[in-house]
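Box 3.1 A note on notation
Throughout this textbook, protein chains are presented in two layers. The first layer is the amino acid sequence; the second is a token string describing backbone geometry. Keep the layers aligned when reading.
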Amino acid sequence: MRLRSAVDQEIRDLIQKKGRITFAEFMQACLYSPLGGFYSSRGNRISSHFGTSPTSHPVFGALIARQLEQMWHILGDPPVFHVIEVGSGDGALARSIVEACRRMPPRFARALNYVATDYQPCWLQSPDHTSGWNYGTEGFAGPKREDTILGIQRVKAEGSRPFQNVVGCILCNELIDNFPVHRFAIQDGRVKEVFVTSEGRNLTEVLDEPSTPRIEKRLASLGLSLPEGYRGEVNLAMEDWTGQLASALDRGFVLTIDYGQLAPDLYSPQNSQGTLVCYNRHVVGSDPYQDIGQQDITALVDFTSLMQLGDRHGLTTVGYALQSQFLTNLGFSSYLDALQTQDLSAARMELARMAMMSLVDPDEYGDFKVLAQTKGIGLGTELMGFENREP
């Protein structure tokens, strides 16, 4: 008989105590439980389960660095330009952005203060790491480096004091898709919520009245008319999240990169059984109730709601594009062409080309969406990554 993991037992104990739990509670434990959630386990290297744009090729970070430099100019070239990357994972994006900024105009490089924060950072701990990073643990405390050396502060999100008075950019790459979601189904013309309970040794689902009216309120705000039997997800965690970002940002930008859709596409007939996906060692699955704590669980991001919530909290949408369009506008082709000038073997050049092309391939990362929002900046702001582009 296979032993249950600690997080699996934690979930069953919670069900026994409450009778049933929301899927959001289940997903929260699976991903973030300190007893062995997917993202809280130090031994769980994310790269062994799925790929990301930053791990595909450093040109992804280099192009974002170009966008950040323009943002700095739009803000009036402040002496300190904060970039707060939330959900920094293994630091791949932080490394590529900072390395690219080393090769950019010195004034911008000196102004950059990069803070990478995560629920459970999993970077190398060596103090003599060649990237010259600074490992902070007390939250947003300003630059900790010599003026000529770019540093990255590593901050653990849990327990650190909130970011405040940020002038710069808050950057979120593939983060919101891992927020716990509530699942729903249309039954007898009404919205019912999917709850998780146990039946013998198995976890099972039951439908009942929603645990909160916010689920129906969100669906109503999107003007949706869903057919009988339709199933989907609602990300309520985005509401508090957006408020926190707006409070932290004094003046600047929020740049969100993730896979998702606008509401009419997200809640379309093609997604009539929801968009929940699991990743376990590069194998894609649809059953969240197996390998608890050992697999990632994600759902497509509702970018319409993200924009509406931003408007409510004073964040103005200034750009929305496919990742392929965003990177192309920032000069992707120039990096691709530059491969020909590098002293690489034919095989290595082809590998690099394939890795770069995955960033704009619609069947890989090119179909991701990029959303830019601003606060404290006048209307008419046009960012290079979004010039005359519609996804």
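Residues 121-150 have pLDDT under 50 and may be disordered. The first strand starts at residue 21 and ends at 22.
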